[in-house]
């Protein structure tokens, strides 16, 4: 078991290192000087020299590469010349609202999936049909359109929630639902399939023979069994939520990492975008590694191998 | 975006018998949802080829005498804040969404197939390198990877197609890798080797065609998620710019007038969702048919 865990950790380190290398290669392979790429739309005397000095661009490419990997790995993403702040400060100051939104949406999506999948799996054909159509629809609907529809109904017409901003829990309700629904659609699909497969397992027949109620079987036994494979989706879900958060923040005019990144993209502020994208990739890798390792540890069948 | 749901085929060894089985499935019964999806895709293709068949309005021409008119007989989807016909804009929008979505898919297919075939070769090094490359690319969330690409390359339709296409490479790469390994070890390839056929001949006559059969099905499902991703990037203003009648752009523009008019914010969204559903349903059906899975 520990060999598997170690191999998984090793592979993740390779992926993390690879993503930094890809970033480095992109900076150097693109047409134009690295100074110009990092400066973006800005131009003032001394800027290019400052960038060259900061990243040691006069040194050999191998030396630059080692310095780049070391810096990024230690969490130093350099300066945003556009915002005139260290990128780390920019990201740190904007991280919280986005994490708050993504975490709320993630919990919401997970809860919706558990409730819907437990209620609808293995029922009559009609119920399953309806459930799968609903899931497909939500999984196929763009995040931002859900946001627009919710705004239309609950903010503009019913006036229950504010149209934009990030003050108080009321401003979090619609963005969290918006971000949660497409994820919930996919999660429900996956979980329902898993539950239906589990319901066919011999141990469920044994439980029925022992006279457990349908509710007990589903909630106490089948759900736990079926939810385990969902763990491997964790990293992917977190990545999707981070990406979706960018769009959701735009729809609802919320401050956060997404809004900051979007502004950075539009003003060609490469250091900020690079930092956010690499950070998201690291979070993805870390989350999926932790979940995979946990999966190996929790699932007794894998332990035996 | 959905690489995690790869149904990496376990039944592809039976590839040679799949067409016969496919015919049987087709004759049995095609689900109503699949028929509707196929019809909708056909309708989209007509809208791409000849949007003039559906509407006489110019999608770019504003009419300042009929601004934000609610849907009626003359304007079935109403008019937007510049008096442009929303129905005409939605119809013409099919072009952009399909072109960018299919363009992105082509990029994913070409690079995914190349790298996937390389990864499926005997060499352990090639396999590890390419497979880790797929892991690296898929560790970036699609939207953020696309934002990085746009920062480097600039806004525009072609660039967001590149961005979404890039993030789709691992999906095809992994499918093609698995398929290559299967075919490489299949009896008919071994026999061809024994008969003394050259490597190049075997590659083009036996390997490539049997590897490529896996692609169209995966691509059909992928077009749906590509269109979804593209609409999001357009909404963020990273793709085509106003006044282009692209669905994501139209929805972004509609946000300013939501307080007084719902129709510009509804119909393009319905179009995106139906398109994505149609490609997903149709693609999944093809997958069931060609993999000979029994779903009844």
Strand order of the largest sheet of chain A: 1-2
Which overall shape of chain A is indicated by the principal axes computed on the Cα atoms? flat
- Integer average pLDDT of chain A: 85
Radius of gyration of chain B using CA atoms only: 22 Å
Query: Helix-strand pattern of chain A, N to C?
Result: HHHHEEHHHHHHHHHH
> How far from one another are the termini of chain A?
7 Å
| CATH topology assignment of the largest domain in chain A | MetI-like fold
- Hey, which two chains have the biggest interface? A-B, 53 and 46 residues
At CATH level 2, the architecture of the largest domain in chain A is: Orthogonal Bundle
CATH fold label of chain B:
MetI-like fold
Rounded mean pLDDT score of chain B? 83
Largest sheet geometry of chain B: none
- Specify the overall morphology of chain B: elongated
Keywords (chain A): Cell membrane, Membrane, Transmembrane, Transmembrane helix, Transport
Subcellular location (chain A): Cell membrane
Main location (chain A): membrane
GO molecular function, one term (chain A): dipeptide transmembrane transporter activity
